[in-house]
Fold this sequence. Notes:
This protein is 52% helix and 2% strand. The chain contains 6 helices and 2 strands, in the order ββαααααα. The termini are far apart.
Amino acid sequence: xLQINPNFFNxxxxxxxxVDNYEVGTELNETMERLRGxxxxxxNNANIDANICDKHWFEGVLNTFFNRVGKNNLxxxxxxxxxxxxxxxxxxxxxxxxxxxxxxxxxxxxxxxKLDSFEKARKRKYKITDVGLTFRDDxxxxxxxxLNHGENTAGRYINFVKTICLDAKRNExxxxxxxxxxxxxxxxxxxxx
Length: 193
């Protein structure tokens, strides 16, 4: 972890000041420069690959730079959902084709943002193991009552969460025992004459 005493940090230059008074000042300045270069390089690569650069992407970049990357991050619902999206271009479909449409990825990103909003509203991060019937009911109420989504849209979002969790299960990540009972829905429209 990179920690700097605020008394030794120059906000204008973004570097340490009074390096003579600080034993590891030169080393910290070098680490900060390497980090800056790594972030810029990662950002440029993400843009080339058309990846989304948001807080989850940034956390991943920092975790990689500081060698803090581990399977534990994938135990969280939103982090696993982003991992799922990254695999979509090489995913094998039921009909034997590979990949998916760009619009599908955009819809999935939108769904992840709803999950992120849900976590912020509830002031907690959900794990894959939290997705049971209680989660489903709470998330459904959030989508319908707080975000004013229609029932069909909310039902699709529930299906999306279950899809993510089933993929996690296939990748040997522990899931909630009630996951199989979690169901989305589509409300049938009555046809008018």
